User: Fold DUF1353 domain-containing protein from Salmonella enterica.
Amino acid sequence: MLDHYLWRVYEPFEFYLSDDNSDVIEVPAGFVTDLASVPRIFWTLLPPDGKYAKAAIIHDYLYDNALRTKKEADKIFLDGMTVLGVPKWKRTVMYQAVRMFGRGNYGKCIKGYN
Assistant:
């Protein structure tokens, strides 16, 4: 953990899209993320570092670098949560949240880090 609820990826990792194994997203070492951008009031049910954390890192990486459209990045987040075995109700809540409220973060890096 860095500061103000930020984490740094220390080892790169890859995510293969479930519908196309030739489509790979690689998150590099050094990338800084806030994991899941959940308002603090909801952390009891949806902590930033929940089972969906790797999917959230991929989502942040796609958003920060605008590597896919917002809609595609959100769908990849949903797919990642499914692969990670996140319960359906949590996947649905998290996915709907990024669809409705993520627009302001798309294409913006965390200042001073990425």
Summary: Residues 7-105 form one domain. The chain has one domain: 7-105. The helical segments are 53-65, 70-83, 88-101.
